[in-house]
Amino acid sequence: MIAFFKRYVLHNFGLKLLSLALAAAIWFLISPEEQPAEVALRAPVVFDHVPAHLEISTEVIPEAQIRVRGPERVIRELQPNEVHAEIDLSDVKAGERTFDLTSQQVRHPSDVRVVQVLPSQLHLAFDTGLTREVQIHPRVTGIFANGDEIVNVTADPASTTISGPRRHVERIDAATTDPIDATGTRGSAVFTTNVYVSDPLVQIVQPVPVRVTVVVQTAGTGPAH
Hints:
Elements: H1 2-10, H2 13-30, E1 36-43, E2 45-48, E3 54-56, E4 64-71, H3 72-77, E5 84-88, E6 95-100, E7 106-107, E8 113-118, E9 121-137, E10 140-141, E11 148-156, E12 159-165, H4 166-170, E13 174-177, E14 180-181, E15 187-193, E16 195-196, E17 203-204, E18 210-218
Parallel strand pairs: 2-5, 9-13, 10-14
Antiparallel strand pairs: 1-4, 3-9, 4-8, 5-7, 6-9, 9-12, 11-18, 12-17, 13-16, 15-18
């Protein structure tokens, strides 16, 4: 038994151990989990160092489609928030500008690499910011008794402050409310609603509920006070 052990186990033991190690290494390298794999991710574009006085005035900014390659194990566990594109806006001015979108702008885990970025360029418009006050125009509809009509509509507050890219803000004549259905109202009624502007690049600075007073009277009875 001892002779058998020495002849078949201990003989060239170092070479046998090395062979075993090499076999394990080769298996590891060709393991399915370590084979290369690819995935395409929809990733946000992050804008860094935006000048305080500028606004992005492009209405629709596409996400980037980023293809990355790496070990299958890593690709399977990759989370969308681990990959995103970055564009430095520190030196931009009002106007239009095209930015290259390459693998250099993509932040990603170190064990994957970027294969492709789509789109390859982004064309953006910039404008100086503007804040101003506009009137609130309530939207009131309804069906009323024969001869009745809306004679007065008031909003409280009567105005709101809006902010956004200058050219977009300057085009806003007034803010409006969500539709108010005053059907069946007689005399005075108060409705609470919200105010908004239709331009997606213009925002209400401090949104608050708006109280809209609607006065309905019979036609010809004189204006309400």
